[in-house]
Amino acid sequence: MEFALCLPLLMLLVFGSIEAANAIYLRQAMTIAAYESVQVASAFGGTEPEAIARAEEILATFNVSNATIEVQPKITANIKGGTPITVTVEAPTNSNSLGPAWFFSDLTFRRQFTMLRL
Length: 118
Prior knowledge:
Strand order of the largest sheet: 1-2-3
Number of strands: 3
Radius of gyration: 19 Å
Strand content: 15-25%
Shape: rod-shaped
């Protein structure tokens, strides 16, 4: 009888912990991707395609799918040093969950970094 009463609570605790750990993992992967990408974009001679490729490489390493990467402002040959470059990475939790997204369903995580262009 005690087991029957405690089992739903224990299952909720176990699956909630797994879901929370997965959400933390996703946010950390996105943080690393945004940071590495903005470093590439803000470096001397860095380009937007190189920055996006670096972010996609890191996200693929962490198995993050359906992410969008945006670099603002658009990097051109005329961009001056000292210009703030911002990289934003967004990914939905639904397509990056280990199982059914019970606790973090229909959320989109967003990570953003800004650095000055060299």
